[in-house]
From TrEMBL:
This is Heme exporter protein B. It holds the Pfam family CcmB. Keywords: Cytochrome c-type biogenesis, Membrane, Transmembrane, Transmembrane helix, Transport. Its main location: membrane. GO terms for cellular component: plasma membrane. It is a multi-pass membrane protein. The chain crosses the membrane at residues 9-29, 35-56, 90-109, 116-144, 150-170, 182-202. Belongs to the CcmB/CycW/HelB family. It is found in: Membrane. One of its GO terms (biological process) is cytochrome c biosynthetic process. PANTHER family: CYTOCHROME C BIOGENESIS B-RELATED, HEME EXPORTER PROTEIN B.
Length: 209
């Protein structure tokens, strides 16, 4: 996390990339305000996922170049603690991006927040789910010598349920769909617990082997 703060990659590269995605989607939809509002939730989470891939890939590069993961494993630190720490580091970056993108869809797409608690709760849990799954696949890719270009192929299909649930919950929070968004939040929260538990257990097994 300190490396990311010093490098300012989040501010100088990832945040402008996220803003560019929102602008390009707006141009693609021909600046139709109603369409932009209707699709704001999906565009928001697609942007988050693309930025998450950048953050996870950069994390893998740092660990491989500095052999940081090897050092942590040799230091005797609990593998579960390593996993949770890494997940939190990525989640913090994504939360900052979610705030940035949230302001973006409000200003650019004229979206209106009708249920702030649903919006915040869904954003938090979905962020943790993405970070947990990204962390475990980052560990796997680093350990197997898999190139970062394969990460989206491995990660995106498994994140599809999180994307669907978070998008539907956001649809309700932004008032563009007459659905019970809290049911979708519960779905996302359940996935978050499962992915975090499975990721922690898998990282523990990998460290032992």
């Amino acid at each position: 996390m300190k490396i990311e703060l010093r490098s300012r990659v989040l501010i100088n590269q990832v945040a402008p990339f996220a803003l560019m995605i929102l602008v390009l989607f707006g141009i693609a939809l021909d600046a139709d305000q109603q369409s932009l509002r209707n699709f704001a939730s999906g565009l928001f989470w697609i942007s988050v996922l693309l930025c998450a891939l950048m953050a996870i890939s950069r994390s893998m590069t740092i660990e491989r170049d500095d052999e940081a993961l090897v050092g942590l494993n040799l230091s005797g630190v609990d593998p579960i603690a390593i996993f949770l720490g890494k997940t939190c580091a990525i989640a913090i970056q994504l939360l900052v991006l979610e705030i940035f993108l949230g302001v973006g869809i409000i200003l650019l797409y004229r979206s209106e927040v009708e249920d702030l608690w649903l919006l915040v709760s869904t954003g938090l849990f979905a962020c943790i789910a993405i970070s947990a799954l990204g962390t475990i696949f980052g560990f796997l890719a680093s350990g197997l010598g898999v190139r970062e270009t394969l990460l989206p192929i491995l990660l995106l299909p498994l994140l599809l349920p999180v994307l669907i649930g978070a998008t539907r919950a956001f649809d309700d929070a932004l008032g563009v769909a007459a659905i019970n968004g809290w049911n979708w939040f519960a779905f996302v929260a359940g996935l978050t617990v499962i992915l975090t538990a499975v990721g922690a257990g898998a990282n523990h097994l990998m460290a032992e082997n």
